[in-house]
Amino acid sequence: MEASLLQFFSSLDRSRFVDDPYKTLAQVDRPLPIGYGQTISQPSLVLYMTDQLQLEKTQKVLEIGTGSGYQTAFLAQFAAEVYSVELLGQLQCRAKERLDALGYRNIQYKLGDGNFGWAEHAPFDRIMVGAAPRTIPQTLIEQLAPQGIMIIPVGPTYWQELVKVTKDETGRVTEQKLLDVSFVELVEIRN
Ligand code: SAH
Question: Do the domain assignments include residue 11?
Answer without folding.
Answer: no
